[in-house]
Design a protein that fits this description.
single chain; mainly alpha; MetI-like fold; 0% strand
Length: 385
């Protein structure tokens, strides 16, 4: 019997006996103990996690923390060294480097999270479970497509795709952003529509016309859709959105197969487990088995894949922007900062313009790699046991 099923059974029995509060308290203490034990066992990874938390905090709240407008130019204060007024100095146009670093960090955080949770997250989980559980031709087709994308030189094809489709893409996006439907969505019409749809799901639940598992999947789908579409409706009004979306589209085809392959192998080992066979014996459908039994047991693989893949996504975005095919000026980006500071003259006079963004990038990627190594070691020990 799977771990999650054992806990559900114990919780049910304790609830019937009146000891549910004791069980909840004990379960909470157990989780805190596991977190504390992991931090003590992986001290360096714990420090990396703390640093990442600080970086994410500064990036997410960049508009509140930044002391200056990242686009504001002050030609009387160009190429200034770090000081009390400008702690990271200023660039060749007099823009505050600290503010630009915060906004560049926010942009990279948004792109990496969006790319992972669609490409290496949702898409990888869906295709990996589908290939592992169904097998046969479905497994073969998904694996062949994934092997082709993995075999191709990813960065080269990203550059090729970005360079060839950018003109047509920008004209199409200009028409789309100015279309009445997008204006309606960004003005709140989309939220009203999704709220009505969510209310209809609640009515279906009350009427008990849907199974509980299917309703939970639909509710989760609606919640995620509301979040994604609401964020997209807001991002349409943000400067640089067109560039962000292009990078997002270019990165997705090359970011899913690694995680999907790991999830497929785990699904293959789970689908013949005793608790899965028991579920089939009592008449559980494939849909219920995947949602209730397989999916909860592969979530930790998604976390491992996320920690391993975010660094590559960051470097790909920086490379595209450095070559002029990603985020376009004047939107803050680490790739643009490195390009502006890469001349011999700039390195001699203002080396901090190259040093500061490079240190932030390396710190961000290195911390994720440390966490990924710690999680991978835990995964290896779990598989051996």
């Amino acid at each position: 019997m799977g771990t999650h099923n054992v806990e559900d059974y114990i919780a049910k029995r304790l609830k019937e006996s009146g000891d549910e509060e004791y069980f909840d308290t004990r379960q909470e203490r157990s989780r805190l103990f596991k977190i504390k034990r992991w931090c003590l066992r992986h001290r360096i990874a714990s420090v990396a996690l703390f640093i990442l938390t600080v970086l994410y905090f500064f990036g997410i709240f960049a508009s509140v923390i930044a002391p200056y407008d990242p686009l504001a130019q002050d030609l009387t204060n160009v190429n200034k060294l770090p000081s009390a007024e400008h702690i990271f100095g200023t660039d060749r146009l007099g823009r505050d480097m600290f503010s630009r670093t915060l906004f560049a960090l926010r942009n990279d955080i948004g792109i990496t999270i969006a790319t992972f949770f669609t490409g290496a997250g949702m898409l990888a989980v869906f295709l990996g479970m589908l290939a592992g559980y169904k097998g046969g031709k479905t497994d073969m087709i998904i694996n062949r497509i994934g092997e082709i994308t993995a075999m191709l030189p990813g960065l080269l094809f990203m550059i090729l795709i970005s360079a060839t489709i950018r003109p047509q893409y920008e004209s199409a996006m200009d028409e789309l952003i100015n279309s009445p439907s997008v204006v309606w969505a960004s003005s709140g019409g989309l939220s009203i529509f999704l709220a009505i749809f969510a209310g209809a799901l609640c009515l279906l639940f009350v009427a008990r016309r849907l199974e509980r598992d299917k309703l939970m999947v639909l509710a989760a789908f609606v919640a995620v859709s509301m979040l994604i579409l609401s964020v997209l409706a807001w991002l349409v009004t943000v400067q640089g959105f067109v560039d962000f979306l292009l990078i997002f589209i270019v990165l997705i085809p090359f970011s899913w197969y690694g995680t999907a392959r790991i999830i497929r192998s785990q699904t293959l080992s789970l689908k013949n487990a005793d608790f899965i066979e028991a579920a089939r014996a009592v008449g559980a459908t494939d849909f219920r088995i995947i949602i209730r039994h397989i999916f909860p047991n592969i979530l930790y693989l998604v976390v491992v894949g996320m920690s391993a893949g975010l660094g590559g996504i960051v470097f790909s975005e920086i490379a595209l922007t450095y070559l002029g095919l990603g985020i376009q000026p004047p939107t803050p980006s680490f790739g643009a900062m490195l390009y502006d500071a890469g001349s011999i003259r700039s390195l001699q006079v203002t080396p901090h313009l190259m040093l500061i963004p490079s240190m932030v990038i390396m710190l961000f990627v290195f911390c994720w790699n440390l966490i990924g190594d710690a999680l991978s070691s835990d995964l290896t020990l779990k598989n051996r046991s």
